[in-house]
Design a protein that fits this description.
Elements (H helix, E strand, L loop, with lengths): L1 E8 L4 H11 L4 E7 L2 E6 L6 H10 L3 E2 L1
Antiparallel strand pairs: 1-3, 1-4, 2-3
Amino acid sequence: MKEKKIFISGMSCHHCVMAIERELRPLALEKFDVKIGMVDVKYDESKLSENMIISAIKEAGYKVV
């Protein structure tokens, strides 16, 4: 399992958090905790890559920094 903290720009409210959660929920993440400006994730690298997580965040309309 890999644990990673990903920093996100453009988030300002709880609706932003919900938008990112909606994109991350379908992924094979063991755990994720979205807060304004960041997300902590835990995932199995054999099932999911960091790039897939970043793509989901971008799909929600936010930028990873």
